[in-house]
Amino acid sequence: MPETIGFLKPRQAVLDRRREIIADLAELLPEGCLISDERGLKPFETDAFLAYRRLPLAVVLPETTDQVSAVLKYCSRYGIPVVPRGAGTSLSGGAIPQEDAIVVGLSKMSRILDVDLFNRTATVEAGVTNLNISEAVSAEGFFYAPDPSSQLACTIGGNIGMNSGGAHCLKYGVTTNNLLGVKMVLFDGTVIELGGKGLDAAGYDLLGLVCGSEGQLGIVTEATVRLIAKPEGARPVLFGFASSEAAGSCVADIIGSGIIPVAIEFMDRPAIEICEAFAHAGYPLDVEALLIVEVEGSEAEMEAMLRGIIEIARRHGVITVKESQSALEAALIWKGRKSAFGATGRVADYICMDGTVPLSQLSHVLRRTGEIVASYGLRVANVFHAGDGNMHPLILYNINDPKDAARAEAAGNDILKLCVDAGGCLTGEHGVGIEKRDLMRHQYSKNDLDQQMAVRAAFDPQWLLNPSKVFPLEGRPAA
Amino acid sequence: MQTNFSPEQLADPHVAESEKILRKCVHCGFCTATCPTYVLLGDELDSPRGRIYLIKDMLENGRAADAETVTHIDRCLSCLSCMTTCPSGVDYMHLVDHARVHIEKTYKRPLKDRFARSVIAATLPYPSRFRLALRAARLARPLAGLLKRVPWLRTFGVMLDLAPRAVPTASDGARAAVYAAKGTPRGRVALLTGCAQPVLRPEINEATIRLLTGQGIEVVVSAGEGCCGALVHHMGREEQALDAARRNIDIWLKAAEEDGLDAIVITASGCGTMIKDYGHMLRLDPAYAEKAAKVSALAKDITEYLAGLDLPERVPRGLTVAYHSACSMQHGQKITLAPKQLLKRAGFAVREPAEGHLCCGSAGTYSILQPEISAKLKDRKVRNIEATKPNVIATGNIGCITQIASGTAIPILHTVELLDWAYGGPKPAGL
């Protein structure tokens, strides 16, 4: 496919010193923590946004904050770009490297350092997976709330980088609302700590700035997160509709009425078929759209909330209402939903959009999305966090056909512009990465973008941390 | 994933198959999380996604295997946990099979590794040689430490460590014969007696025959059947594996022709995964494709077969069993509920250890060829099992039995030994 998203031109001075740089990095790290031969580098050339690929100069897999610090200090001294990587599950290309960059992978830093149930916090290394945190405290009746669908594999470090969300964020908020503190290495090697175990800290909210900064302000090596007590009970309920529009307007009405369930997830017919084939969750196959609404609390609370939701759903012509009858059924319902993207791989290649729109616009944007994709001669499957308007149209295409790939990318751009024009934004939880970088001008005025870049430059004046991402390549301040 | 193969490359049916597998992968990364080697080592090259990428690069470029790629493929346990996790349906098993054959054909391992592998391939699959080797190992055990210090002999030092302290005498209870059903006949099955299992734990097949015949099932143990071929298959020695497959197919189909067979019952899940794949492995062999498919369709794990017999409920015996699901059972054959339900019905309290999806590190010859990773996985597995405070551990694969037994004092039995006891057989030794 002809690439429409450019990367920064590799620095010749860095490429020329390749051998020396690798020898120096080997000095800074223990054995088994440096990958520098071409064969070994290949698997690191992309993440889950796999249409774009660049072989890095080297990959380091440090085991401690001190080692991260030593590597960053070295790279800043010699002007070498650095691309941080967690589990490499980014759907926006946030972890795709470039030819002159060192990938700093946090996958070896995967220890849970402290669980403080009294204060309801956990402190973990950045390479711990999202789900591992919940699993570590599950027996004591707690969990970590943000639950990206990739939570099985994605790391808390990556979640912080992208300010990730997830199905249950409707009630509990996204990463930034559940993050209490970080240990972070600045590009010059300085180790700083932001926040702590409390909900707020004195001074500027730098933690809020770091969360969602896509690895451009520093590399987070440890995080302290908020733990939440598990509810008394939780129950996902399936609502089937005859049209996507009906399901969309039902969501807007539920939220508009003041009812906030834990999660409202949306699937259209193609997505239902894909997920049912994988998970056998019992999704209705005779509907055009499905909402998975999860309620939680005591039996009485769940009943009361459900009654309200069912009443609203009836007004929107709901066809089927099916409550999960067991923990196993509930688990399958969520397994199907959370595996939706990967399961789509059984049918076709895809790119996944992440636009977020005001709920009042949901039905309109869904309809227009279908029209846009059809106008490119492609198919779309919609599966997303409807409760907070965070849409994920999966544009299905054939990655081995360059023309198809170009059409898919163009359709994606049109959809994201549609979201912005509808009063929404480019990304709800996947981050800008490389994918949406050039659309940032559609989202922000020049002044707004300049201000963000000024903040970025304050942390990394050389513009070497994850440099090809987030901000359009033209119009950046001189490094 | 995007693939880049020429029409000439795709003319090779093995490459064509691998291309199809690669096209399904969307590089989502879910598989990394449940891969034992990634969990331990934290390096994507030691994860399914990394290996898939390495294999893709090697095959696309039509390149001979190189040391870096071989290192990471060798570290794969073939536990297939990734296949349980993969939402996209990537057939990693057949991709890594292809890669192993490609490695065996195009890569020259250092002489010491070739030597060690040849010895393994010439010993383990043959019960009499294996028994002899174990007897010799008992005598040579004091030398283990010394051997492990000599790079050339290190593998043999590891083998001495792994060899059991006592070697049972050759069993008579499962020799080639037709074992008549007791009571009203309900069915007829062939039993794979296997290679390493009858040497290490002859009680397993004895218990199986006793339990099945007691339930009215005639059991055929055919003369000449032997190793299913899995041990050499996982070393990329495809011809040797296919020969083993063809030999067993001929023998079982003969038994089927004589008097019919309802199933070929297998008591080691590693072998079960392999025999269920005979149909695929021999799909390109016109003389055997159909026969192999027939055998694969007949193959059943013992618990899978027993689940269909509707065994009566037994009163609880106040014994807590930690059920360890072998990877070849849960990931390879996707048998997850039957063994636990059978145990519960037979009156045992069943506990499931944490991290049940992670391999114990046995994985065929893995414990011999990758002793460090294997030992770490064993420790982790034993910790999780012991945390459930069981009276006994049950599992369905001889490899796991040997591996876990070497790390804990809690007795470990094959599931079928406990079931045999519950339905009238003798109390298993060691309980």
From TrEMBL, chain A:
Keyword check for Transmembrane: no
Short name of any one Pfam family annotated for the protein: FAD-oxidase_C
Cofactor list: FAD
Boundaries of every FAD-binding PCMH-type domain copy: 52-230
InterPro entries according to UniProt: FAD-bd_oxidored_4_C, FAD-bd_PCMH, FAD-bd_PCMH-like_sf, FAD-bd_PCMH_sub2, FAD-linked_Oxase-like_C, FAD-linked_OxidoTrans_Type4, Oxid_FAD_bind_N, Vanillyl_alc_oxidase_C-sub2
PROSITE patterns in the cross-refs: FAD_PCMH
Highest taxon, organism lineage: Bacteria
UniProt keyword Transmembrane helix present: no
Molecular-function GO term, any one: FAD binding
Residue ranges of the TM segments: none
UniProt keywords, alphabetically: FAD, Flavoprotein, Oxidoreductase
Name of the protein described by the UniProt record: Glycolate oxidase subunit GlcD
Organism: Sinorhizobium glycinis
Lineage, opening ranks: Bacteria, Pseudomonadati, Pseudomonadota, Alphaproteobacteria, Hyphomicrobiales
Automatic annotation (TrEMBL), chain B:
Stored InterPro entries: 4Fe4S_Fe-S-bd, 4Fe4S_Fe_S_CS, Cys_rich_dom, Glc_ox_4Fe-4S, Helical_ferredxn
EC numbers, comma separated: 1.1.99.14
Annotated Gene3D superfamilies: Alpha-helical ferredoxin
Keywords: 4Fe-4S, Electron transport, Iron, Iron-sulfur, Metal-binding, Repeat, Transport
Domain 4Fe-4S ferredoxin-type: 16-45, 66-96
The reaction(s) this protein catalyses: (R)-lactate + A = pyruvate + AH2; glycolate + A = glyoxylate + AH2
Domain of life: Bacteria
GO molecular function, one term: glycolate dehydrogenase activity
Cofactor(s) this protein requires: [4Fe-4S] cluster
Co-factor note (free text): Binds 2 [4Fe-4S] clusters.
Function: Component of a complex that catalyzes the oxidation of glycolate to glyoxylate.
Name of this protein: Glycolate oxidase iron-sulfur subunit
Organism: Sinorhizobium glycinis
